Sequence to fold (233 residues):
Amino acid sequence: MSVLTLVRHGQAAAFQQHSDVCTEKVELQARKLGSYWLAAGVAFDGVYTGTLIRQQRTERVVAEVYAEAGRAWPLPVALPGFNEYDAAGVLSRLVPVMADGDAQFAELVRRFEESGVNSAFQRMFEVAMSAWMSGEPAVEGIETWPEFRDRVGAALRQVMTGEGSRRVAVFTSGGPIALAVQTAMQSPERLFLDVNWRVRNCSITEFLFSGSRVTLDSFNATPHLPVADVTYR
Fold:
């Protein structure tokens, strides 16, 4: 059996329309992941990332840790299929349309805009993401749920194609990880959102695969991070 390790990027700027900005936690979280893997003797046959800054920076820091220890690290391959869903589009395009047509949702938006607190954002964003998955209301200029699902699925199939037993790492985001978990468990699509909210920054989710067979082996593990360094956004 081969092993597919999905790593969520380190902490990025939260609750912004343009969130592809790393915080200072990225360096800390990724270096601890690299050190943890080195101590465990983990080596990879292939490494992939999405094309987002936060994904690639997390991978680069881990690669630096391996280089400092004189250990081999594969040249990463960037695949856009591992990028996050269009959260910026949901916030800038879908949310205003929903607020115009739904007084209750407009109140959620108002509470977030006035308070700026994370809990208010989460309540608003959960409703918006449910609407995004349902496709109602339809808004142009946003990658749809079926488009996101299909591109991530294609990227996963691409990295799992090959002969013999292999160990592959992918540095990606919470959405692709949640989709991989939901797909492997053959669960209802709604589970995607429930899983997505729980994926920690720089966490490890692993699958065993052979041919078309994929099994979830572990989810959202952060053995390399003390509690004080665990983040979700």
Summary: The two ends are 32 Å apart (CA to CA). The chain has a mean pLDDT of 94. DSSP finds eight helices and six strands in the chain.
